[in-house]
User: Fold this.
Amino acid sequence: MELSNENQKLTPAVRLGRRLRRLREARGLSIRQLCEQPGVGPTSHSYIGRVELGQQLPSEDLVRSLDRFFETDGVLFDLWEMATDRAVRDYTRKVMKKESEAVRIRVFNSSMVPALLQTEDYMREVFRRSLPNASEDKLNELVSLRMSRQWILKREEPPYYWAVLDEAALRRPVGGTRSMAAQLQHLLQMAKRPYITVQVVPFDAGPYPLLSSFLTLHMLGNGGMIAGVESFDDGESVESPRRLAEIIHRFDLVSALALTDEQSLDLIGEYLKGYENDVDS
Assistant:
């Protein structure tokens, strides 16, 4: 009975991790060996290790591959969906489930670094501050889900990714100067990848459409498109052609005010030096 009660308290992410570990051990495989199996790997053994501990959700691609490898008829994917559904709001769930199908992603954020470019420390602090009543388990779920989403930019054929952010995201020290230095270093490293573009809207651009909001535009492999638009505590998923045209137009207006990608990286580098100097002082 005690074991049953404990099991009822497990989060879906922990349930998924434990099920994966049992399946792996039943095959007599180490984590490294699992990562090298055809149809599963190559993937990072530390990544699988975090999944088994319930510290990170696997990407959708990986969880489907694991279901096929272990012949579990979608059991792992069902647990993954439970974890995803529990961690996100209804209006973002539909957009996120289309993310893995995207061949091009455009994002704008007026107040922080976009989710797929965040470090773990940065995103944890964002969640902690924006959800002050959230339990540590809830924070872990949210961080785990966001980390799993970032895998889309590391896969063999990643989508083209274009991020536009306000200079305010660079100026605001989320988690302190050390956290920001690590975040901006990561942002610069990601921006070096040929399929990723990062641009900054400078303060002197003045007001613009989408101020105090953020949006995501996914172009799907079948030519379709879906957008997610969020503000402080509300949001919507958008698929109607008329609304999509309006959102794309606003994104185009904002991106026209942004610095070039080279100028943007220079500005990020200037902020990085400032944070690094504060850390050293």
Observations:
- Residues 90-280 form a domain with the Endonuclease; Chain A fold (CATH 3.30.870).
- The CA atoms of residues 147 and 193 lie 18 Å apart.
- The longest strand covers residues 102-109.
- The radius of gyration is 20 Å.
